[in-house]
Each structure stands twice: as structure tokens, then as C-alpha cells.
Design brief:
This protein has 13 helices and ten strands. By secondary structure, the chain is an alpha/beta fold. Strands 1, 2, 3, 4, 5, 6, 7, 8, 9 and 10 form a ten-stranded parallel β-sheet that branches. Bound molecules: S-adenosylmethionine (SAM), 6-(5-methyl-2-OXO-imidazolidin-4-yl)-hexanoic acid (DTB) and iron/sulfur cluster (SF4).
Amino acid sequence: MIRTDWTRAEIAYLFELPFSELMFRAAETHRANHAAGEVQLCTLLSIKTGGCPEDCGYCSQSVTANSGLKAEKLIDIDAVLAAAAEAKAAGSQRFCMGAAWREPKDRDMGAVCDMVAGVKAMGLETCMTLGMLSGEQARQLADAGLDYYNHNIDTSPEHYRDIITTRTFQERLDTLAEVRGAGMAVCCGGIVGMGETREDRVGFVHALATLPRHPESVPVNALVPIRGTVLGDLLADTPLARIDDIEFVRTVAVARITMPHSMVRLSAGRESMSEATQALCFMAGANSIFTGDKLLTTANAGDSKDAALLAKLGMVPMTAPEPMRAMEVAE
Ligand code: SAM
Ligand code: DTB
Ligand code: SF4
């Protein structure tokens, strides 16, 4: 049964379970709803890098960060299609395009919709993350064939204002409602390791698991500390503040148990994670990763490292598109 009425106390209880008990329950939920030996491969491309007016404390692309990144223009559709072809050849199932915008300008919509249509025509699932959307923009993207829209709530509602001051948690929820209203699937998660408390992690999972419909994809990122960003500098100066591996795995497990049908993506931060920690995340129910050498602006594990890890774990890339898989499970 899919529950959207989780209480914070229930989620806190899951976080507090003995680790082996939590892992057992998460693995059980995973097996009941997904093919547990399969991992979905997704590839990211930054289609518009840097110069973002928002002040997200973790992000290299904010104008408030001194990350040395220079603002670029929206890239050409040919470059997008070439990157998508490469991703497809490497076995990726979904192609995610990200732009460092607070929201897209209406004059950009034609170009991004062409990108969606082009990538979709190549037989890849399409995802975009462009910041906040109006209802009309969401409809335009849906009409162009966009399958997923990524828009993260990032952390608990209480911790949100310590991380970002240029928009509110409620504005995130408003865009998610526009995405749903336009009929697209939702990709929504956040970042662990931003100096939040356990209670914030409880509040973060609670906010996702009590949305009117669970996001079809839930990316769980571990903060990538980038020099020149508020959080990157803070973490570099206090290394002990880095998220504990077991606590990260617990977060993945609780996401899996509370949102059983969702794809839980082990997202940014894998580069600095041991193979053993990643394996624990898969056992805890993570069933999706970002592949390739690059995320948006930072390095990622890379295809050959990932292929070696999956082979070592006896796991295989997912091939069937997610909606089909969901139907198989429902039968
Ligand atoms: N501008 C759009 C937005 O904020 O929705 C899309 C791009 S933004 C880079 C997408 C997501 O990447 C953020 O919501 C955040 O969760 C994640 N992210 C960004 N920088 C990160 C970092 N340094 N470490 C981990 N995750 C990060
Ligand atoms: C998500 O949750 N993580 C991705 C994707 N959605 C867009 C982005 C990760 C970015 C990591 C830092 C960087 O490369 O700039
Ligand atoms: Fe802009 Fe997105 Fe980075 Fe925030 S996370 S600064 S909105 S690109």
C-alpha cells in the first residue's frame, strides 16, 4: 500500500531502528516493488551553466559563489543531441538536462522544447531541471514530450531558509504542483550533509513522502563540497562535518521504505563514496545512479568505474522504461 500520511514520529522511528533491521525492511520493500538486481542509468548535461541569480549555499553556479565558474549561454541543440547520443551508446536510459536559472524566460522555451523533442526521438527518457515553472511553461514542456521534471526540495522545510534565501520552500511545492498539473512525472529529492540535524533528515523524507503523490524519482545527493560556495567552504574548514556514511545509507533506506514505488537515485557525491558505501545504498533500496564522467559542474565516477562496480556486485543496468516496470510490478 502506498501511504502519503506518514507522520514525522513514524519516520523518526525508522531512522532510529537498529541498522540491520532497517536494512532488512528496506531490502524487503525494494524486492516487493522492483527488480532488486537492476540499476537505472541516467546521464546529466548542463545546458546552461553558471550565472544563476539564486543563492543556494551548495551551488557552484550561483552568482553569489566564488567558484571560478563563468556564466555561459544556453548551449546549441546539436551539442545536446551529440551528448544524448553518447549517453545512449553508453547504455543510459534517461537523459537529464539542467539549466542554472531561477526560472526559464519565455523566449527560451522554444529552444528547450526542441531539445526535449530531439532527445525523446532518440528513444531516451527525457528529464529537465530549469528552476521554477509557470503553469503555461509546464504545459509547453509536457507538450514537447518531457517525461520528468526535476525540482528538489533539498532539505527539511525548517532548514531550507538556512540554505537558500532567494526563494521559499512553498515556491518549490508550487512548481511541483504545476508539473503534476501538466501531467509530467516528478523527480524530487535533496541533499544530505549540509550541516542539517537528524530531525531535518526526518523532515526532508517526511516532506517527500507526504506529497499528494510520491515523486516517481527521488534523488538523494550527498553534498559535493565545492570551494567558493558557502557550504563547500564550511565543510572544507570543518572536515568532521561531512555526513557519516551510515547516516547517509539510513536516509536512503528510509526513503525506500516510505516511498516504495519510487526510483531512489544515489546521485551526487558518489565520487567520494567507497564502493562498500555504495553497495550498502543499493542494499538499502537505491536503484538508480548518474553515470558518465560529469554531473553538472563537478566530476562523477565515470562509466568504466561504474561498470566495474556493477559487475562486482552482480547488478545489471535497467533496460525497460520505468512506467512499464511499474505495470509489471502491479500485475
Ligand atoms: N536551477 C535548477 C534548480 O535549482 O532547480 C536546476 C539545477 S540544480 C544544480 C539541481 C539540484 O542539484 C539542486 O536542487 C541540488 O539538490 C543539486 N545540487 C546542486 N549542487 C550540489 C552539490 N554541490 N552537491 C550536491 N547536490 C547538489
Ligand atoms: C539532482 O538531484 N542532482 C543532480 C540533478 N538532480 C540535476 C545535480 C547534481 C549536481 C552536483 C553538483 C554539480 O555538478 O554542480
Ligand atoms: Fe541556481 Fe539551481 Fe544552483 Fe540554486 S541550485 S544556484 S537555483 S542553479
